[in-house]
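Researcher: Last one for today. Full complex below.
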Amino acid sequence: MAEHLLEVRNLSVEFHTAAGVVKAVRNISYHLDRGETLAILGESGSGKSVSSSAIMNLIDMPPGRISAGEILLDGVDLLTMPANQRREVNGRRIAMIFQDPLSHLNPVYTIGWQIREALTTHGTASAQARAEALRLLTRVGIPEPEHALGKYPHEFSGGQRQRVMIAMALALRPDLLIADEPTTALDVTVQAEVLALLEELQQETGMAVLIITHDLGVVAEIADRVVVMEKGELVEAGTVREVYRNPQHPYTRKLIAAAPGKGEMHEPAARTAPVLSVRDVRKRYGAFEALKGVSFDLMPGETMAVVGESGSGKSTLARILLRLDEPDAGSAHWKGRDLFTLSPGELYKLRRDLQMVFQDPTQSLNPRMTVYQLVSETWIIHPDILPKAKWRERVAELLVQVGLGPEHMGRYPHQFSGGQRQRIAIARALALEPQLIICDEAVSALDVSVQAQVIALLDKLRREMGIAFIFIAHDLPVVRDFADHVMVMRKGNVVEFGTVRAVFETPREDYTRALLAAGLDPDPDVQAAHRAARLQRAS
Amino acid sequence: MKRILVLGALMLGSALSPAFAGSGPIKIVLAEEADLLEPCMATRSNIGRVIMQNVSETLTELDVRGDKGVMPRLAEKWEQNADGSWRFHLRQGVKFSDGTTFDAKDVKHSFDRIMSDKNACESRRYFGGMTVTPTVVDDFTIDFKADPVQPILPLLLSLVTIVPEETPLEFVREPIGTGPYKLTNWTPGQQIVLTGREDYWGAKPEVTEATYLFRADPSVRAAMVQAGEADLSPSISQLDATNPATDFSYLDSETVYLRIDHNIEPLNDVRVRRALNLAIDRQAFLGTLVPDSALLATAIVPPPTLGWNPDVKVFPYDPDGARTLLEEAKADGVKVDTPITIIARSANFPNVTEIMEAIQAQLQEVGFKVELKFVEVAEHEQYYSKPFKEGRGPQIVAAMHDNSKGDPSFSMFFKYATEGTQSGFSDPKVDDLIKRASAAVGDERAKLWSEVIAYVHDEVVADVLLFHMVGFSRVSERLDFKPTMATNGTLQLSEIKIK
Amino acid sequence: MTLQTTDTALAEEPHFARRMVRMLLADRFALCAAIFLLVILVLAIVGPSWLGDLATKQNLRGRNAAPFDWERGWVWWMGADALGRPLLARIIVATQNTLMVAAGAVALSAVVGTVLGLVAGFSSARVNQIIMRLADVIMSFPSLLIAVIVLYILGSSILNLMLVLAITRIPVYLRTTRAEVLEIRERMFVQAARVMGASSKRILFRHILPVVLPTLTTLATLDFAYVMLAESALSFLGIGIQPPEITWGLMISQGRQYLTNAWWLSFWPGLAIILTTLSLNLLSNWLRIALDPVQRWRLEMKGRKNG
Amino acid sequence: MIPPPDSPEGAMLRFIRKRAVASLISLVGLIVMVFFLSRLTGDPAALFLPVEASAEMKAQFRELHGLNDPLLVQFARYVGDVVTGDFGESLRKARPALDVVLEAFTWTLWLALVTMTLVTGAAIVVGSLAAFRAGGFFDRLSSVISLLGASVPDFWVAIVAIVVFSVNLAWLPTSGTGSLLHWILPISVLFIRPFGIIVQVVRGSMIGALSSAYVKTARAKGVKSGPIIFVHALRNAMLPVITVIGDQAASLLNGAVIIETIFGFPGVGKLMIDSILQRDFNVVLAAILVTALAIFLMNLLIDLAYALLDPRIRH
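Model: Here's the assembly. Have a good evening.
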């Protein structure tokens, strides 16, 4: 058998933590050949990034420890290599790009400097490095590359930063590129562009790509083969199509089933008297116009999705509706009263009706309060809702309602998983018995399988309790199964508004169409078709 | 009565036989920087130590090494006129360091300047309660008329530094004087340099140049002389004075005492005051917290002073006697249990805290209730000087008094007369005695002062006199110099010999 | 790298106090520091009534007795001071005043500074400006000069000393707290509390303060050392605690003049200050790790190994 | 949602102006406070004149220096004079107070500058190396040394240093100014405490920076340890360090009273304490003004240093 470019054999890594020794990966093996793309698919906590860190020698020891296995690059074990040789491999033979390029680029040096460093570290003369950096930036499609070399990471958009990372990684034409969730925080349209760039470059250089992702769509778009990981173990491996069409492991099946955007769409009832009526809301931050006149109506008990990419003003809208920010102009009538003109006292009463669930439950729950304290705090603030004697009982009820148990009452947020934390946040919102809950990217930070569960929970609450939702998301498939109406926003304007079916099946606006097209489908065949169509449009 | 003091220059001249003496520059390290070099402030010790008699000279000078009393300096001789005024015959051929010639007009101006209200000259204080009018007789003769008549006017004029006629009334920064040195460098905070004058009227001193340095910490000063960075430190700590070859002690004219406020019960009772005196074991302090060579005080002025009374005896250490006295007083209804506050000034003199703590302990031993309070200089002054605060409790102020002038008049009125600013009592007999003594001359004067000292100590029991302090100096072995009682306020470079 | 253990960390953690004790046992330096401080604390409480008389009994003839004279009672092991009082006894008696001044000053400045910082960080721009300018004024006012002026006006007593030292340290807490509040108030859980209708007071004291507290605790332990040294510096200048009250700082400055011929007078109290501040520093370093969930494993790992 | 940046220079000027106004307010507050507080501490006449001075002499002294007027009149007069650049005369020294202060401040400035430069350099190297192998032997050693440094009374060290290095070994002059050698002891003693504190801060900040994502990127690029510590991590870790350096420098600029006293160093700290001791109010006020102004300028420099180190702040 021909030697693989990279072969991971029986790798086990463990970490010392507060909860004892955690075996992050257990006895995993996979391989990769030149020109090939392998995806490692897994959710948070699956250990999918650990093996790549081991390859790059990025595991801090302690607390980490590689307890067994070998990593062969062209047949040579990286783990037993002397330190200076090992360092030479990084950047020259294997390069890596990361999720969140903003924090992975050094904020205090220009990108030109950082790209040049990648070259000079491995012996390129500095004059040559300068020319090469310019060539690379041009290649990855940064506008005005000459000028861009002197700029700092924070002066670029998210997509451009990832392009810079790619330029830096590919500076020495490595044999292998490891991409750890390279598109996760990016807007869908940008994600498509970055993935396309990676593919192009792979074809140019013939390098192997190891892509680590939680997103089936990404796998379908770019990978040749996929390995699936769960809780530190490799549960399934095969070609992308094989795995999607014919998953063997129950976990893989669950993962595929959880992918959003395949259920029945809602058919909203006829529009009656709106419970919330928003007219011409405007907001500027200095010279930046965040909202340029937004108007809409929300019916009682209905779910309205607000979709848009970063900078569209969707989060500003949420904050203004809850008076976390003050609008510059406009009105928002809630049951006939303008939210924007309420006195603090009136606003305090109204808080009961309007609640919010935030994007990141890790941050929206006070880390120093127990679940009981978190939920019951609402009744301390609004003492007339419930007598203190009944608090414990009611907290238990609410926890059951959101799918947790009464026994969780005494624990702290950090003892829960992301999905569980979001359930706590929802329980807290429910404690006030609100009539409208605004969810700001409430499921974006969650794993796909958890996302589906939380959305199902919200939908159940809407049905059972008649709560209206404004559901803010950057991702269209997520809202497809859940929303009654969809409002698409772009740069502070409402681009399109309609029923979910109208928006998904007969989008009127180019922008909406572009958003839909850029979304990645978990089905490799569907995605291949999308791609073909896209390429055709491009040419 | 006319009294004529005629002292020729021959005495000064005879001292000048520099046969084997070396000469050269020296460095002197002082504790406190001279913030001014104003001649009329030379009576303040930190200033006087630098310029008095070195840069600025006076008409007369007190002999602190021998017992010659008041000696001539810029005045060659003086006599009292029939009307009680004094006539001074000035030395001729004396030049100021700016080249101008010294004459009687300069003397008059110097005196007028001190008395002017355009400045805050400190020397003025010695002329309080009298009117002194200088009159120029001719270029080298000047009369001083005082009302009331001042028998010690020649002594008082040893405190008046002479500046040229042109000197403005406001403070100057460049002292011009007739002395053997002139100021050649003054870098505030760092050093002052005096350089010998070629055209000095008198004998040329061996020290050609003196650099003054300032260090607040006594052990640093001692270390500097030891390390050769300085040749002389007039004051070092007793603890550092361990090398007999370089370290000398000297009686430094400071007297430590406890001023008693007689106005407040129980301190208004003489038995209580006597008990205070008997309760303190003065002898135990010597060689421990107070240098061995310090003297136990029986007067507010040190022994070489006129009228110092050898017959007055130090109170014995008699705790039992003290207890008995206290009980007697108590039996008579004196509230001896009232807590008495001793107010002392932090860093007033070496070991002040320890000494006061020890005194407190000794007083408590015999049954006094004593509290100790340390305050800083400004607050101390409020307790020490009149007007005293209304509604105060019984208070004792620990203080240190300096009189190196040889005459008790610089002390007695202030400390013991009814009108005295630091006097804690009022006794008509004391007032009368002080008045008479101040006006008297000669043996009569000495006798009267002796009487005051004895009466205040034995009858009034005015205060608790403790120690005449000694200072310690470190003198480099290349110098030949013995500090004197006056060293606190005057450090004449001409007295320093180089081996 | 971050550990992705969010899902596996569900395991019940032991009770807070037990966990702290276990972590303390894991760090030998911190443990020694804690024991030392405990001893100091006990001495501070019982010292004056236990050894008060012995520590003030003078004996001029036995002054500056040298240390390590094992023949005499244990209180004489460190020698005697300039009035012949046993140094060890005096150090023990002085513990109370020393700790009282330091703890009082630290507590006062921490409370006032923190409250002002919370208010500054959370109120209108105008209030913020006023408070910050006040802090600037104190900051640019040399601390020894404030101390001298205030002590001159108010007189030197333990209480005033505490006050003075507290005033000079207020800006430290104020600025730290304000900076943290400005950051924390933008956090999601604060927004969440506002959405619930929580009052500013509630947000400040229930939500923000607990998050700032560990930083402040660390700061306060470090400041403790600073204040003790500042107190001794004031004594050096002659405006600190006045005898017959004693503190370590005063003992050092009184013994300073004997440094060349009776070094023990200032050495032992100096050592007491050094050991105490060192212990506080060690403990605060430990505390910083123990309270930081990201760093905590270092101690817990060791704890398991040792235990 | 960052507003589009206008020119960085314009922003910088606006920032400086804003800071200047804020500092002016503080400065005025400071002057008001010092003026009235210092006058509460007592009468300069009692201190300038000997205890035996008569009441008339004291009254005349007060009259001469305008101390008899109501406080508010004195204050108005003072403010009027200061506005025209006249900071009054020193009572004690009979010279313009500002001259006295500037003379002393020059020494303090140099002392602070040299000390802080040395401290910063040494603390950065030691702190960074300690952070790189956190928990290792060097880390332990440096933390014990720095903790010790932060907890030793400085006058104690100063006197022992003089006894050892000047008297016994005779390597260095005991005190004073003059040659470069004279600077060694005071600087060494002043060095200790800020060094102890800054090493700790550098270490803490570096541990954070070394575990950051961009260091991971650098390691993935194959960058060596040296550049990772001193090029990648250090510049990022410097922000909190600079703040602490600023605080420490500020306290040095305010004068190292004790060190100045012991070493006979003619700095502004001792001047301030001496002046308040002597109730020489004009000098106290001028000294406070000068040091506060210096501290303001230094804070401005620190803000500029921030901007220099971190491009994100430039906008």
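The mean pLDDT of chain C is 79. The longest helix of chain C spans residues 200-236.
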